[in-house]
Amino acid sequence: MNNMLKVIVESPYSGKTDKNIRYARLCVKDSILRGEAPLASHLLYTQEGILNDESPTERAIGISLGLEWLSCADAQVFYVDYGMSKGMKEAEAMGEKNGIERVYRKIFTPSKNKEE
User: Fold this and answer.
1) Do the beta carbons of residue 83 and residue 56 sit within 8 Å?
2) What residues make up the domain containing 47?
3) Residue 98's Cα: distance from chain center in Å?
């Protein structure tokens, strides 16, 4: 297990939060099943009792905490079935600035309908 890639999972969060949380969980599972060690900070830090994504201050803290992981991750994996959110684009720019590999994936196929 020492050869697992450490990846930061990027997927939409705000907006249709319930749908986006379900999607992010599928993304994390997809990453795990590929043999990666994923971190989805937007799922971790937004749990009840941790940070409030509705608070601009706490949201900014959560984003900066997630970006701290860029220095030790092997790659950022962007799951783009629902497109790129503003937060994902900001994370992409930070990854590019820090020279981290960026990978783009979709988990839905025509036979697997996405939730609307």
Assistant:
1) no
2) 6-105
3) 17
